[in-house]
TrEMBL record, chains A, B:
Lineage: Bacteria, Pseudomonadati, Bacteroidota, Flavobacteriia, Flavobacteriales
Taxonomy, superkingdom: Bacteria
Cited PANTHER family: ADP-RIBOSE PYROPHOSPHATASE (PTHR43736), SLR1690 PROTEIN (PTHR43736:SF4)
Domain Nudix hydrolase as annotated: residue spans: 9-141
Protein name as annotated: DNA mismatch repair protein MutT
A Pfam family the protein falls into: WHD_NrtR
Length: 228, 228
DNA sequence: TCAAAAGTGTTAGTTCTACACCCATGG
DNA sequence: CCATGGGTGTAGAACTAACACTTTTGA
């Protein structure tokens, strides 16, 4: 007699809530489904976990399959498991969220695969509980951004302070004072000023900075408080 | 041709990391397994999700089956899904954590079922990845306590400020200044002082308070910051 | 009457907020 | 030479942290 033999089994899916920061706006990556079920409808990027992979492996694989994106910082949001969440099948989904800094390369990849960015205040109706997932993920990102320098890790390797500020403004959905923002950020002592300037944003140009992972890890261990 | 027919299915388990606050200490509820696999070993309270219930329904049912406890505030921690996490079977587990205020009734229930409390700094070796889950849950509780009045919600309906302080001290693992703690807590304006005193803690007795759920909900909506 | 816990006020230091102006540059 | 965004200093308000004493009462 095997303990497991009479236990139920489930399809396990992963759905990825991918936020992109593009043109000073926060956007959601939405996929136009080319397969059944729900062919033609809009949905998050998602698929089934395979028996030989972990949920997070699956989310990496699925994101790559659907968008070509790799090395994306993705975190588990939570599981969605209502009995009737998918009317077709009993399936639980482990939602994952990510925030990426959109550039031309990424946009090209995404377009090729038929995915599309929607501004966060203008997300269309998605299948199943995907709108709910999106709302939950937004809340989570706002929350996380309060105690982790989520912004830094997600910007390109080199970034300017005005860009970083725009990112936080997009996440918090409010304007921040540039003097205070700058002071605050620099006080954490986890970014390093470079010699170079980025002149795409203005004539004067803004100095580029890079994230200091070593210092950040040290700070993290001593349990510091990150609050913009 | 059915999209789902060639997809893999998984056993889905729930493991409950139940922290108890008892005698001014934070403790973990551990179960002495009476069934295979791992009979005789120590583990968290956990079992399999059934096809007709959601993960959170399962966690409520499982907690009750194993401990008799009901109406416990339980939250999802995260999923554990490494391919080799359970050497016997491919099974993913959705860990849930809770923090409860232990009293005699609870202790009796728990003892009857053969479960046992261990002080948090003295947790024995548990099966599988249960020690990892415990560590992750502890971190989560510390984190959550920073921005939610987790303490209030988990104390009995009526509680004293010294007791609340002890709870926060247990969670943060450090002493707090009673003057400052009191000021801070009262400044949130989400607890109501009662006429009664609790004299179990001292001769003088400490005034009882109750949590003001209505005010708290309002505050929450306006996105307030809770920080002890 | 005294031990033990409950309860209170103040001050110095820190951090936050709000605000206005100069800088560097390409067009 | 000027429009545009980048960059800085400061003062008042709010908050935090650190501290010592009084109150109540049962044993």
């Amino acid at each position: 007699m095997d303990l497991y033999s009479n236990k139920d089994k489930f399809y396990v899916a992963v759905d990825c809530i991918i936020f992109g920061f593009d043109n000073e706006k926060l956007k959601l990556l939405v996929f136009n489904r080319k397969i059944d079920p729900f062919i033609g409808s809009l949905s998050l990027i998602g698929s089934f976990v395979k028996i030989g992979e972990s949920v997070s492996d699956a989310s990496i694989r699925i994101l790559k399959e659907f968008t070509g994106l790799e090395n994306v910082y993705m975190k588990e949001l939570k599981t969605y498991s209502s009995v009737d969440r998918d009317p077709g099948y009993r399936c639980i989904s482990v939602a994952q969220y990510a925030l990426i800094y959109v550039n031309d390369t990424i946009n090209k990849l995404v377009e090729e695969k038929g995915a599309k960015w929607y501004e966060i205040d203008n997300v269309p109706e998605l299948i199943l509980d995907h709108n709910e997932m999106t709302i939950d993920a937004l809340k989570r990102i706002e929350q996380i951004a309060r105690y982790k320098p989520i912004g830094f890790e997600l910007l390109p390797k080199k970034f300017t302070l005005p860009k970083l500020q725009k990112l936080y403004e997009a996440i918090y959905r409010r304007k921040l004072d540039p003097r205070n923002f700058r002071k605050k950020i620099l006080s954490f002592d986890i970014i390093i000023k470079l010699e170079e300037k980025d002149r795409t944003g203005s004539k004067k140009g803004a100095f580029l900075y890079k994230f200091d992972h070593t210092k950040y890890k040290k700070l993290q261990k001593s349990g510091f408080d990150f609050e913009i």
